[in-house]
Design goal:
- This protein is of the alpha/beta class and 258 residues long.
- The protein folds into three domains: 74 residues, Orthogonal Bundle (Arc Repressor Mutant, subunit A), CATH 1.10.10.10; 91 residues, 3-Layer(aba) Sandwich (D-Maltodextrin-Binding Protein, domain 2), CATH 3.40.190; 72 residues, D-Maltodextrin-Binding Protein, domain 2, CATH 3.40.190.
- The chain is built from nine helices and twelve strands.
- A five-stranded mixed beta sheet has the order 4-3-5-12-6, sandwiched between helices. Strands 9-8-10-7-11 form a five-stranded mixed beta sheet.
- Strand 3, helix 5 and strand 4 form a beta-alpha-beta unit.
- Helix 1 crosses helix 2.
- The longest helix has 18 residues.
- About 4% of the residues have low confidence.
């Protein structure tokens, strides 16, 4: 059940009009009308008698209002596994810089939740421990875990040849180094994309980085890694009653073509 539809239904039932409900909900009257229509379609029954000037509940609507009030009280108190508190979302740095930040700038600026940037292993650990509600990362987690992963897009990596003495291992791409045959005197492992970029700029070592990031940073001496791609996932816990606002974030990410 969509909580927005439920909230609109209760508001119209209380005020007896779409305009009054829209005023209480601080949204357009047309939006309330649409939510009521979709709600009626989802329950497959008419909830309001539209033959009178004031919208009155049908017997089915009156029954549903009683049930809906109990459902709303349970959901807002956290009994159904979600609430109206902010979603704590974690994000891989490259995904944040290339996808999330531009979306925020272009029209998602009213995004009401918290975003933390971190490494793949840290993000999944925080998700497993319930310190994050959802993460965007390059790791979908082992099959035996309680992680649900939905693929968003692929990152295309490239090799940046800056210095043959050292390799700079950016953690999300560490597995790609297994395919490289070159020998290295030393390795520098970093979780930060910015750190990897700065080390390359300074000529400290060579790295495998996202192609779009390397190009934007003006790094030269890059080469393709063929058809290799890094899948980026939207990950949540496999809950019996997932938070609807977390699912709405996934919908918004896809709407913004993330």
């Amino acid at each position: 059940m969509n909580l927005r539809y439920l909230e609109a239904f209760l508001a119209v039932a209380e005020r007896g009009s779409l305009a009054g409900a829209a005023q209480d909900l601080k949204i357009a009257t047309s939006a309330v009308s649409r939510q009521i229509r979709l709600f009626e379609e989802s329950v497959e029954v008419s909830l309001f008698d539209r033959q009178t000037r004031k919208l009155l509940l049908t017997p089915a609507g009156e029954h549903l209002r009683r049930e809906a009030r109990l459902f709303a009280e349970a959901s807002t108190s956290g009994l159904l596994g979600f609430s109206k508190r902010k979603v704590r979302m974690g994000c891989l740095q490259s995904a944040f810089e290339e996808k999330i930040a531009p979306s925020l700038i272009k029209g998602w600026a009213r995004f009401p939740h918290d975003i933390l940037v971190g490494s793949p292993s840290w993000l999944l650990s925080e998700l497993q421990e319930d310190r994050l509600d959802a993460v965007i990362t390059s790791l979908s987690g082992p099959a035996s875990t309680s992680i649900r992963a939905s693929k968003l897009y692929d990152e295309v990596p490239c090799f940046v040849a800056a210095n043959s003495a050292a390799r700079i291992v950016y953690e999300p791409y560490k597995d790609l180094w297994l395919k490289e045959q070159e020998t290295w005197e030393r390795s520098i492992h970093v979780n930060s994309l910015n750190a990897a970029l700065e080390l390359c700029r300074a000529g400290v070592g060579s790295a495998i980085l996202p192609s779009v990031v390397a190009k934007r940073a003006g790094l030269r001496n890059t080469r393709s890694l063929g058809q290799k791609k890094i899948p980026i996932y939207f990950c949540t816990k496999k809950l019996k009653n997932p938070r609807t606002d977390v699912l709405e974030i996934l919908t918004e990410l896809r709407r913004h073509k993330v």
